[in-house]
Structure formats: C-alpha cells, structure tokens
C-alpha cells in the first residue's frame, strides 16, 4: 500500500517483495529512495556473505542482526554476532565476511544502490558459469563445490578477508570464459588436436575479458583467479607460463581444488577416480604442478572432503 499524500509505503507481512535467491542466501529489497537501499538478507547455515571496498564507492553501510548467530570476519579477526548486534562503516575499507553458524537474518542498509549487483551483475555471471559447466559435462553444483573447497582451503591457509572474498567469487567463476570456446571443442570426447587445445586454453583469457568488461571491482579482482588458475608452480601452465610467487594465491588454491574435483567427478566419457587415488595424484604434483604449501594444506583436509 502506497500513500502519495503522506509519502510512505506500507508492506504487510507475507506480501511479495523483490527477491533474489542464491544457494544459501535469500535477498529482498525492502525499500529504496534517493540511492539509499534497505535490504533483508537470510543467510543459511554454514554459508557466507561478504562486503568490500569498491573504486569510487563512498557510502554508509549498516548491518543489524535480526536473528541467528554469525561469525563476523574482518582481516584475521573473528567476532560472534547474534540478534541485536549491529555495525556500520563509512564506507567499508576492508573486505568483511559474515558466516552463518545457523540460519540467520539481517538488515543491510547502504547509502548507494547495491541491489542490482545481486539481481543482475554477479548473479548473471554465476548463472553463466553454471551453464558453461553443464555444457562441459559437469553437474550444476560443480561451481559450488569448487567454491566451498576453495574457501575451506583458503581459511586453513589463513588468507585475509580481502583474499577470501576474491577467492569466493573467482573460484565459482573460474571457467566462465569457456562460454566463448566453440562447442565442438568444448564437448569433444576424444583427445583435442593441437589447434583445438590452443582454442581451449584461451578460456582463461576470455574469462578475464568477461569479468573486466563488467567494470565491477569485485569481479575485476576475481579475474586474477580466472586468468591464472591453470598456471603451474614450475611454470609449465598457461596462458602466461607464470611460476612460483608470480601466481596469485587464490589461483594456486583453485588449481589444486579444480584438479581434485576434475579427477573425482564422473563425466559423460569416464568415471571419476576414488578420493584416495586423486589425493595420491596431487601428492605427486607437489613442487611441480602445485604450490607445496597449498597442496600440503589441502591434503591435510582429506578427512573433510
């Protein structure tokens, strides 16, 4: 119900609001005026939500916890939040994570429009990534698996919140550039010819172009992972032949996780190998294909895989 005379909008409980649903997160736009938005979030158990600095962004950001319990992760600090807790930034200067310990709800108020990031930009990129993986013979939850394993490994390695947020997006979108690879190459069940292999390798470059063309800071940061996740520790990877510390840490993480998932996942043309065999293959690649610290940390997570 809207009153023009008094300038208010009344929405009773149960009435429809503009909502975006992602795995583990429901987001609803409650109110918007003059660039300020009030957004309701429901974050489901064990899932994460993040906010971070963006170029040319100077705005108040306020969060009020309605229910549940969440970890507030800022840099290397963790604080427990529960109903009634709140915080604000003017603006946020470092990436912040909220991780739900149980199903939780909070209100996010932002002095600049942000809802379209959920409803159009980031969500459309995630939808594109999922469609690419399905076309490549994976199941629809492949991107989610890569992200969850990457985040688990990133936390074990003690990554700061900024790198964790970049990892969150970059791991999910790691193969988005395959949308520009011809279907006859992407779907070929046999060994690729040298020419076809060169086309396939370009998906890393295509992915960087797609994310940078959005001109969204979060996605441009994630492009580092998308562009480098096939680089190898000894320099034998592609597209640039980077080695060692030349490779961004998030890309090193996705390189290990993506290799493990590729080996253990059933595809149309082959059955996935056993977890133990895949871990043994990763062990063989330590110091050549994979960063030793990253790969060893992943092997230490074997019981959680």
Automatic annotation (TrEMBL):
<dbReference type="InterPro" id="IPR003607">
    <property type="entry name" value="HD/PDEase_dom"/>
</dbReference>
<dbReference type="InterPro" id="IPR037522">
    <property type="entry name" value="HD_GYP_dom"/>
</dbReference>
<feature type="domain" description="HD-GYP">
    <location>
        <begin position="117"/>
        <end position="305"/>
    </location>
</feature>
<dbReference type="GO" id="GO:0016740">
    <property type="term" value="F:transferase activity"/>
</dbReference>
<dbReference type="Pfam" id="PF13487">
    <property type="entry name" value="HD_5"/>
</dbReference>
<dbReference type="InterPro" id="IPR011051">
    <property type="entry name" value="RmlC_Cupin_sf"/>
</dbReference>
<protein>
    <submittedName>
        <fullName>Putative nucleotidyltransferase with HDIG domain</fullName>
    </submittedName>
</protein>
<dbReference type="InterPro" id="IPR006675">
    <property type="entry name" value="HDIG_dom"/>
</dbReference>
<dbReference type="InterPro" id="IPR014710">
    <property type="entry name" value="RmlC-like_jellyroll"/>
</dbReference>
<keyword id="KW-0808">Transferase</keyword>
């Amino acid at each position: 119900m809207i009153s023009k005379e008094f300038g208010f909008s009344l929405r009773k409980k149960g009435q429809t609001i503009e909502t975006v649903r992602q795995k583990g997160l429901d987001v609803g736009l409650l109110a918007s005026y003059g660039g300020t938005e009030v957004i309701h979030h429901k974050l489901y158990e064990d899932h994460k939500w993040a906010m971070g600095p963006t170029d040319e962004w100077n705005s108040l950001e306020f969060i009020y916890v309605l229910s549940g319990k969440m970890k507030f992760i800022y840099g290397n600090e963790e604080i427990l939040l529960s109903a009634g807790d709140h915080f604000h930034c003017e603006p946020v200067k470092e990436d912040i994570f909220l991780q739900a310990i149980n199903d939780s709800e909070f209100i996010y108020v932002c002095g600049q429009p942000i809802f379209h990031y959920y409803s159009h930009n980031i969500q459309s990129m995630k939808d594109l990534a999922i469609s690419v993986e399905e076309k490549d013979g994976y199941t629809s939850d492949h991107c989610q698996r890569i992200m969850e394993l990457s985040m688990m490994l990133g936390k074990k390695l003690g990554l700061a919140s900024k790198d964790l947020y970049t990892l969150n997006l970059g791991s999910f979108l790691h193969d988005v550039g395959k949308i520009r690879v011809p279907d006859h190459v992407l779907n070929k069940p046999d060994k690729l010819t040298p020419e076809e292999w060169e086309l396939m390798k370009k998906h890393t470059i295509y992915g960087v172009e797609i994310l940078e063309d959005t001109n969204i800071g979060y996605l441009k940061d994630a492009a580092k992972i998308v562009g480098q996740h096939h680089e190898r520790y000894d320099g034998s990877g592609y597209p640039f032949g980077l080695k060692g510390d030349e490779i961004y840490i998030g890309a090193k993480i996705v390189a290990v996780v993506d290799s493990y998932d590729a080996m253990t996942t059933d595809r149309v043309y082959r059955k996935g190998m056993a977890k133990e065999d895949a871990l043994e293959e990763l062990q063989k690649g330590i110091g050549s294909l994979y960063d030793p610290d990253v790969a060893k940390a992943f092997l230490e997570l074997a019981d959680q895989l």
